[in-house]
Amino acid sequence: MRKIVLDIETKNTFRDTGSSDPRMLDISLLVAYDSHTDTYYDYLEDEFSGLWKLLESADMIIGYNSDHFDIPLLNKYYPGDLHQIKSLDILKEIEKSLGKRIRLDAVADGTLGKKKSGNGLDAIHWWKTGEIEKIKRYCKDDVKITKEVYEYALKHKHLKYRDLEGVHTIALDTKDWEKKREASVNFTLPF
Predict the structure, then answer these.
(1) Which residues share a beta bridge with 62?
(2) What class does CATH assign to 3-171?
(3) Pick from 134, 60, 149, 138: nearest CA to 103
């Protein structure tokens, strides 16, 4: 199964747009991990044609808050419908089990014993100051953490998170995570 783990950074905030709709934001950078090649790729907006080819070859897109944020925002740029590709949103799975949303940083800390290297507001600042390499490193770190969290959950059927009271376990039903589904995508690839 070819899995693409991705994360998006933006050029602006919800406050800048006056809306809570992710589609009103603008993408500065996207990093994707391809399980088929075991490679991380980064894409600026003018490089998205290469990204479409990668996503169209995927059996599944994996992210953290990706069904609510990343995929709707990316769909603004894509000429087809990315909702046609199977997706697994780890945050959605956590919320389904726990009844609440947990930040990736708390899950990474509890599950992997590591913290994120920054936050989305840092990435917006770096975009505005032209520090693209910093955005790439930060976004790639988030994709690595998301990938490791996914792999841990798949193997152990649970994740952990840390809060002020300690470390807590989140039971997850992962049995259907890697079942293939037929995708019907408006392909940008030539036939």
Answers:
(1) 5, 88
(2) alpha beta
(3) 149
